[in-house]
Amino acid sequence: MTSDGHWQAKSPGRAAFGASFDLSDATLDALNQKFPGAEFVRSDCNRFCSIIIKAPTEAVFRLYNPNSGEHFYTRAAAEKNQLITSGWQNEAVGFEATTIGLPVYRVYNPNAGDHHYTTSASEVQALVATGWQEEGISFYAYDPAAFTLAEKALTPVYRLYNPNAKAGAHHYTENVGERDHLVQAGWQAEGVAWYE
Rounded distance, CA 159 to CA 100, Å? Predict the structure, then answer.
């Protein structure tokens, strides 16, 4: 809390605080005038409060390569525009990503021309050991460990795998209907990749 009474979140998650306040007669009169029919009474208030803090979000664009069947995800408008110029199809915003939190890494397979996205640093290292190129953090996701089940108003982004594809073998979507359609078409559901 700042000296002037403002709160500033350091990271997403859950915060708890205690508050004690006393409503003045003027505040009670103002509340009763603003909300006719409500009965505001004078009493001390001591409460324990819990709030959920979510970080700001930014768009992650989804593009499709009709030649390879690969979907590509980026938050960089310049990268999106360069790919559109190169023949990729813009599928607009794929999902929203938080601006801080759990890193989502991007790796590239130069042999297949395929990109892969994961929150697992060990998965990145395993792929790099087989010849993939690490491209760093692509965007961020919410860390589900920072929220209790009751607080999770988070949207899952699902990861699917196409065992028949040479490129574009993985797909990521928040759309349950799209996920289910791909599973019916032979893709393997790999669960939740991350949360937005």
Answer: 21
Quickly count: other Cβ atoms within 10 Å of residue 49's Cβ: 9
- The string of pLDDT tens digits covering residues 13-66 is 555 444 445 556 777 677 667 655 545 554 444 554 445 556 778 899 999 999
Among candidates 77, 101, 64, which has minimal Cα distance to 178? 64
Q: How far is CA 145 from CA 74, 104, 195, in A?
A: 25, 15, 11
* Cβ atoms of 143 and 12 closer than 8 Å: yes
The model's pTM is 0.71
Terminal-to-terminal C-alpha distance of the chain: 27
Longest alpha-carbon distance in the chain: 74
Is 111 exposed, middle or buried (CB count within 10 Å of its CB: 0-12, 13-18, 19+)? exposed
